[in-house]
Amino acid sequence: MKQRIIDASGYKQFLFDAKELKAYMADAGAHAYYFSIYSTVLDDARIQQVCSWIEEQFPGADYYGCTSFVNIIRGHSNNEKIVVVCTLAESASTRFKVMHFDKTKIAIDDFAKYLYEYISENPWIRSAEFIVASSLNHSRNVLCDLASKIPESISIVGGCAFNEHFDLMKNYVFTKHGGITTEGMCILFTGGDNYYSKVRKIEGWKPLFRKFELTKVDKNKIVEIDHRPAAEILERYLGIPNDENIPFAAIEFPLFYTENETDYMLRSILYSDSNGSLVTGSYVKEGAHVQLTFGEISSVMNTIDEVIDDMIDFVPDNFRAYSCAARYNWWGNRINEELSPISAVAPVNGLFTAGEFVRIDGDVQFCNCTLVLKAEREGIPKEPVQKPKHDHSAALTTSMRLARFIGVIIQELEEKNDELKRLAVTDVLSGVYNRGALNDIIRQLADNHTPFSLIMMDIDDFKNVNDCYGHDEGDKVIQRLALVITEEAKATHAATHVGRWGGEEFMVIVESDDIAVAETLGRNICDRFGKETYDIAPSKTISVGATLSAEGDSEDSVVKRVDEALYSAKAQGKNRVITIL
Q1: What does the alpha-carbon distance between residue 20 and residue 193 come to, in Å, rounded to a whole number?
Q2: Distance (Å, rounded) from C-alpha 296 to C-alpha 302?
Q3: What is the Cα–Cα distance from 1 to 49, expressed in whole angstroms?
C-alpha cells in the first residue's frame, strides 16, 4: 500500500502531479485507490474546485475530506491550505469504500441500522475511519456507542473536523457522492484478505495536583467540582479567569478524567458559561474524578518510543494520523519533533483535529489532546526498519523542564500523602485496618442501610504468651492471626474488611445479609488458627462472636451486640463461635 501527495495549490501544478501519479499507477499496477482531501480553509468554492479536478482527472476514483486545523504530510505539519493524498492498493484483494452521512437527510438511528447491515453484508471490511463535522459534536457519545457495536475485529479511528480559525461551530466534511456539509460525517472502510491494520494512541499529558470530584454534571457540562463552580478550579490553580478566552488558555491543560482506577481519558475544555460551568468534549459522569494535567515531554516521547517498538514489528506501509490541535499548540513550531520519529518508520499523513476517536479493547473512546495512529499494511511483514534514534532532552525548553520539575515534586507529594492516608487507617503491628478505620466503615454501612455482618475474635489466654515468652513472641502470634484472618476472609467473601480492634482483638466486617457466611468464616479462622505453631510459644485458640446488622441498628448497637457474642463464646469455654442476632 502506497501513498502519493498531489499539490492542489493551483490547477497547473495539480495537472502535473496527476500525470505523474497516473504513470506511477500504471507502473505499480495499482488495483484500487482513493483520495483524502484536507483543507484548513472554510471555502466551499475552493474545496469544490479541488474535488472537480479529481473527478476530471480520475473519474473512477472515490474521495472524502474535511476541514482541518493543520495538515500532516510526510510526517511534518504542512502550511498548504489544501492537500490531497492518494492511497493506492497493491494487492488485488484490497478494497476501499467511502460512505456519507448527512443528518438533514437521514436520522442517525436509521443510519446506524444501515451501517450495521452494510458491514454484516461485507465481511471484507477490516477498518473504519470516521470524520465528524461540528454539527455532531454534541452527539459524540452517541457516535462512540454506535461505533462500539461494530464487530471488534474491525479497527476504528477518526477525528472531528476543525479549521485554522479555531472555530468549533463551523466545519466541513465532504465526499464524492454526498457533497460538502456541516451536518454529518464521512466514513472510510478499508479491507480485504491481504490487508492488516494496527491502532495506537499517544498521550503523554501528566496529571497535576490532587484529584477533584465532579459533584454536579449535565451530560458534557461540568457544573460543579468539589461542590464549587467548576471554573473556579481553573482560576485558582492555573490563573485562568472565567471569560471568553478559556478555550484558548485551557487547551493545553485538559482534564485527566477517570470513572474508575484503570480507565481514563483526557477531556479538553471547550468553553464556559456565566455560571462557571465548563463544557467538555464529551459526556462525563457525576461522581467521577478529574485532575488538571500538563504536557510532559519525556512522557510523550516515551510513549512514542513504545509505539515505534510495536510498529517496527508490524512493519507498516503507512500511517494515518489524527492528532489534537492542543498538541500542535503545545509543541508550536517544534511539532515535528513528535512526528519525525514515527515517519522514520513509515510515511505519516493526516490532520490536526478537534478530538479523536479510537477503539481500545472493543470500546470506542472520544479523546482530546491525543495522537491516534492507524498503521496499514498489505501482505506479510517485510524486513523491519531500524529504530530511529532521537535525544529526548534536546526537545526540552526551560518551561518544559520547570513543568517537569513541578510534576515530579507533585507526584512525590501525592505519594507521601497517599502513604500518610494509608498509615492513618492501618494498624502498624498487624498491617490490617485500625479501630478508627473499622468504625468508619461500620458507620458508613449503617448510615447507608447496607446489610452486613460483624465477626469479633479474641486470642484465648493471650496474657500468658507475653508473661511467659515475651512481647516479641506475643507480637508474632498477633501477626500470625492477622495473616490467617486476611487469607480466610479473602477466600470466603469478596467484600470483607479486616482490622485490629485493640490488643489481641480483631474484627471482620462482611458486606452480606447472610449470617451463615460470617459463621463459616469465623469457624474457618478458629480451626486454622488453632493449628498454627510458633518458635517458642505453644499453639493458641481464639473465641469468636458474630452478629448480623438489623434495621435501625447504629454503629454502637451492632458493635455492642457482637461484643456480647464474643463474651458468650468466652463464657461457654472458649475456642468456639457464638452468634447473637
Answers
A1: 29
A2: 10
A3: 27
For residue 388, name the pLDDT band (cuts at 50, 70, 90). low
What's the 3-state SS for 428-452? CCCCCECHHHHHHHHHHHHHCCCCC
CA of 449: how far to CAs of 274, 443, 512, in Å?
A: 40, 10, 12
Pairing of strands 542-548, 453-459: antiparallel
User: Mean pLDDT over residues 521-542, rounded?
Assistant: 94
Distance separating alpha carbons of residues 538 and 230, to the nearest angstrom: 61
pLDDT at 422 over 70: yes
Residue 136 pLDDT exceeds 70: no
Whole-model pTM over 0.85: no
Whole-angstrom distance between the N-terminal and C-terminal Cα of the chain? 73
Query: Binning pLDDT at 50, 70 and 90, where does residue 394 land?
Result: low
Q: Confidence band (pLDDT; 50, 70, 90) for 125?
A: very high
Please give the Cα distance from 425 to 437 (Å, whole number).
5
Distances, alpha carbon 513 to alpha carbons 454, 509, 517, 518, 549, in Å = 11, 11, 9, 9, 8
Phi-psi label, residue 14: left if phi above 0, alpha if psi -120 to 50, beta otherwise: alpha
Give the whole-angstrom CA distance, residue 435 versus residue 111: 59
